[in-house]
Specification:
The protein is an alpha+beta fold. It is built from nine helices and three strands; from the N terminus they run H-H-H-E-E-E-H-H-H-H-H-H. Helix 5 crosses helix 6 and helix 6 crosses helix 9.
């Protein structure tokens, strides 16, 4: 596992500024272990798709994001920003967000406000001491949307994923079947595509 994290993908060596040293790799490993072993995301939002493997965490100037292996789309590398080097709290914050997208990887479809909102909500639950930045208005918005949905039923995403595992494909009728009282304007906002 440590070896996988220490070796950036050959195709992406030109993207990262420098190969991380051992202490920087330890930050990524510790951050990953702080989020994954507890199965916190699965406990809150449902099981990860079978066969999905998070192979490693690496640093990239353009992170955070998920990279899918072109030969196996369920083989994932999580890239976190180089700002996370030597900052374990920020690394955990970014990894927690990407973990939600790894529950059922969305290779071809746009991510909805619902999925992005759940990702932001989860990262804030994992690392509440990290505040949103001044340019994070779109993330604050989807956080509020997801938070408002969970006020109706804290388990609604987990329940819906039993029928539709891809958070971005969860339809309004399914959410209403679980909880008919949900505000329709909220639902319409949640199923719209999220634009970064």
């Amino acid at each position: 596992f440590t070896r996988a994290i220490s070796k950036p993908g050959m195709l992406f060596q030109h993207i990262t500024t420098n190969e991380p040293d051992d202490s920087q790799i330890e930050v990524a490993i510790a951050a990953l272990k702080a989020v994954i072993p507890e199965n916190k995301a699965e406990d809150e939002f449902g099981q990860q798709k079978r066969g999905v493997k998070i192979r490693c965490v690496d640093f990239d100037n353009n992170g955070p994001y998920i990279f899918y292996n072109e030969n196996n789309l369920d083989d994932i590398t999580i890239y976190i920003s180089t700002n996370c080097i030597n900052n374990q709290d920020l690394a955990k914050f970014q990894i927690a967000h990407e973990i939600i997208h790894c529950l059922h990887p969305n290779h071809t479809q746009d991510v909805t406000n619902l999925e992005e909102g759940v990702a932001v909500l989860f990262q804030k639950r994992c690392m509440p001491m990290i505040d949103f930045g001044p340019n994070d208005g779109k993330y604050v918005n989807v956080y509020n949307l997801a938070n408002n949905l969970l006020k109706y039923d804290e388990q609604i995403i987990k329940k819906a994923r039993e029928y539709e595992p891809n958070i971005s494909k969860i339809p309004i009728p399914l959410l209403l079947n679980i909880c008919p009282q949900i505000n329709h304007n909220l639902l319409n906002a949640l199923v719209r595509p999220f634009y970064r």
